[in-house]
Each structure stands twice: as C-alpha cells, then as structure tokens.
Amino acid sequence: MIWLTTFLLFLLYLNAPVVAVRIHGAPFFLAAAVPMLLAVPVAYRVIQRGEPVLFPRVIVAAFIMLLVHMVSALLSSHPFEAMETVETWLLEGVVLALLIANAVRTREEVRSASFALIAAGAVMGAISLAQQVLGPAEYGFMGFGQLDSAIVDGEGRVARRLAGPIGETNRFAQIMSVLIPIGAGAALALHGAKRLACWLAVGLVVVGMLFAFSRGTIVALALAVPFALAFKMLRWRHLVAVGAAGLVLFLANPHYAARVGSIGQVAVRSLGLEPAGLRNADGAARGRLTAMKAAGLLFLEHPILGAGPGLAPYSYEENASVVGGKVRSYGRRSHNLFLQLAAETGLVGLLAFGAVIALSLRELDRARRRFASTDRGLWGVVCGLELAIVISLTTSLFLHAAYIRYFWMLIGLAAAASAVPGTPPLAAFLFKALRETADRLRADGARV
Questions:
Q1: pLDDT band for position 278 (50/70/90)?
Q2: Could you tell me which residue, 272 or 74, shows the higher pLDDT?
Q3: Residue 60 and residue 87: Cα distance in Å, rounded?
Q4: Residue 63: how many other CB atoms lie within 10 Å
Q5: Are 24 and 16 in contact (CB under 8 A)?
Q6: DSSP letter for each residue of 388-441
Q7: Which residues contact 251 (CB under 8 A, 6 or more apart)?
Q8: Nearest-5° angle of CA 332, CA 70, CA 404?
C-alpha cells in the first residue's frame, strides 16, 4: 500500500484535486475524496494486518484544540458560519493529519512520503521555470501555472508573480519554501545519481518559490538558518555557498531583489523611525498592518474565547476604521495566523494551537537526537520536517489560516516520522560496517 499513500500525498501537495474541480469542472466531491482515500491503507493495516489505530499525542492535542474552536463557534454571534470553519479545520486539518500518521508508519514509508512532497514541489517548480521561458500569460499548464498580481521595478519593467496550482502567490511561495529543508535533509542520505536527482528537485523548488516574489519566505528561510546550523544539518562552509548562490539569483532577478530590499524600508517605517511613517510604504504592507491591528483590537474585545472561528472579516471594517491605516472596503483576513487565532478563538484557542506546535516540535527533536547516530536517512528527513514547521510558522506571521491542509500534512508526517523506532546502536554499527565492506569489495572488483 506504500505506492497508494505516496501517490495520494503527491496529488494532494500538487493541489491536483482542487485544480480539477475549480479549473476543469470536475465533481466537487473529488476534492474531498482524494484525501479520504488515505483511509484505504489505514484500513488495510487495521483490518488485514491487525495493527492498532494510532493516536499520537499531537493529534490528541489537535482534537482538544478543535473542541475549543467548537465552543467558541457555538458562543459566537454567527454560529453557523463559524462552524463551517471548524468543519474545515476538522476535515482538511486534523483528520488528514491522523490519516497520514496511521498510513505512514515505517522508515521506508516516511522516506517515500517525503519524496512524494518533494516530487510535487519539483513539478511545480518545473512548470514555473517553463512559464518564464515560454511566457506565463500564454501558458497556464492546465491550471497548474496560475498567475496573480504583477510587479513593476524602478525602471518600469513588469513581471508577473506566479501562483502555481494554488492561485495565490504568497501561499504558493510558502508551500514551496517548506520543501527546501525536507529535500535537503533527504538528499544527505542519498548517493550518486539519486542524490543528484534530489538536489535537482530542490533546485526546481527554489525556482518556483523565487518566481512568486514573496518577501515573507525570505525572512522565514533566514530565520531557519540558525536552527539548521544548530542541528548540524548546515555547515558554515555550506552557508557561504548558499549565500553566494542567493546573491547570484537576486542579481539575475532584479524584481525580487527590489522586493526583498523593501523589507527593511517597511520595518523602519512601521517602527516610526522615518518622518513619513507608513504613508510612503507600499500598499500591500500598509493594508496588512491595518488588518493585523484590526485583529488585535478584536482580540481585546473577546480575549477568552474570541469572536468565533472565521469571523474576523465580519469586524474588519469597523475595527480598521478605529486603528487607521489603509482600510479596505470589504472584509479582510487578519494576514497573521496567530493574531487571527487570538481574535477568533481567544487566548484559550491560541494556547491550544501552541500546545499542538510544542508537542510536534518536541517529538521531532527527540526523534532527531535518536536518529543522529543510528539512521542518518531518517535523521535528515526529521531535521527537514522540524525546519519546515519553523518556516511554516514564520511565514504565517504574514499569512492567515488558509490552505491549512498543507500545514497539517507537515504535522501528520512529523507525527509519523517521530513514531518510527530507531535502529539499536549495535545493529546500526554492524550495518554500517557491512555496507562499508561491500563498498570496498565493489571497488576492488571494479579495479580488477
């Protein structure tokens, strides 16, 4: 059943079911049927092989978090609308993570699932690269190469921001950026052509991320570097090489370089260190800061259980007019996952979500230490997943809770990887010695 699980994860990360429904008019139930098919390998394990259904601690904490969301929804001013958001978090989030944690249990399955996500990212990156060569407006690649806004640099040159199969540039950049450490970690345990292919896939993922022109992903990747150094997944010499490659990419892509350069300007103006303040900042930054302030005000009005899941847009215009800034004429999301959770589910909901994150990172950290000396293949994947969650959370400082299935896919795979038992030290030593002996014999035979 490993092939079915791998194929389904590939389709889900590629967003193929949603593209089929929204772009090509496929039946709506298809979008829900594909993730639910993960129940097939789970049923095979439970019914055919007699294995128990697993409920990792992080999943139990997630169900408790959903219970808090449900109470908040029932006590809100629009309970029916709020319960729709709770249902989305249940089906596209916690249930999906539970299915992944039960469908992926062995070392081989964890690595295959990781490769499925990397392969999906490589396909999206290849499409982005092809669009740059052929023309993004002319070639949409059947909905897998969607476009969003356009940006203009200081010399008047226009570039289209690519949105992949998602249709939203910043979200597309987010789901691509989290694959970079997973792919890098997987490549560390490979050799020869397989390792080269994995690094090529990572390169395509980077290309796709760059053509989305997202500033938040650059901030997230930069903040993940100290963790990668602490895990010894990244060495200082590697950091120099990565920095040089990044410089070349920015020089070759002036549009993105200009956007990244504007991060400092927005930070300085938002802190009031320039006389003009935010008045001269770009509209997107001003609009997001206004939405964040409006969410903060909503949290102060409903500090315990919030206004209700998904209901922040209902209060946006009223609160935005109070906090000031660039006020839109329609309901806006909070553009910050944590402020959104605080505004919509209160301090209790925010703490419940924090418990899910803390448990997931703790289990990954324990697995990373366990695999460090016994299984370098799983060690690389676990390191990558830990960094992926850090990147996802950092980019969520600038994004609200949408397309949550991508986040919960990481949580489900993290739970699965953390539960894989490590190889005993003696067995790992013997296996390493046998592998080295076999390599020497093959080398001697080649020389003869």
A1: very low
A2: 74
A3: 17
A4: 14
A5: no
A6: HHHHHHHHTTS--S-SHHHHHHHHHHHHHHHHSPPPPHHHHHHHHHHHHHHHHH
A7: 257
A8: 50
Cα 282 to chain centroid, rounded: 26
**What pTM was computed for the model?**
0.87
CA 214 centroid distance within chain: 14
C-alpha span between 328 and 127 (Å, rounded) = 34
User: Are 38 and 103 in contact, with CB atoms under 8 Å apart?
Assistant: yes
Bridge partner residues of 147 (DSSP): 162
Average pLDDT over residues 322-346: 82
**In contact, 186 and 202? CB cutoff 8 Å:** no
Residues 350-408 pLDDT 10s: 999 999 999 999 999 999 999 988 888 899 999 999 999 999 999 998 887 788 999 99
Q: How many residues does the chain have?
A: 448
The ranges assigned to domains in the chain are: 2-447
pLDDT interval class at 74 (50, 70, 90): very high
Q: Is the pLDDT of residue 261 over 70?
A: no
**Is residue 424 within 8 Å of residue 223, measured between CB atoms?**
no
Q: pLDDT band at 273, cuts 50/70/90?
A: very low
Least confident range of 226-235, 282-291, 371-380: 282-291
Cα distance between residue 205 and residue 198, in whole Å: 11
Residue 104 burial (CB count, 10 A): 29
User: What secondary structure does DSSP assign to 332-345, as a single string?
Assistant: ---S-HHHHHHHHH
- How far CA 418 is from CA of 3, 46, 383, in Å, comes to 21, 20, 11
The token duo for 434 is: 């046998």
- Distance between CA atoms of residues 69 and 65, nearest Å: 6
Helix crossing, 169-177 with 376-395: angle to 10°? 160
All residues at 6 or more sequence positions from 267 whose CB lies less than 8 Å from its CB, including other chains? none
- Determine the residue type at 153: D
* Mean pLDDT to the nearest integer, 93-117: 95
User: How many Cα atoms sit within 13 Å of 422 on the Cβ side?
Assistant: 20
**71-75, 168-172, 426-430: segment of lowest average pLDDT:** 426-430
- How far is 83 from 382, CA to CA, in rounded Å? 34
* DSSP-derived secondary structure letter, 159: E
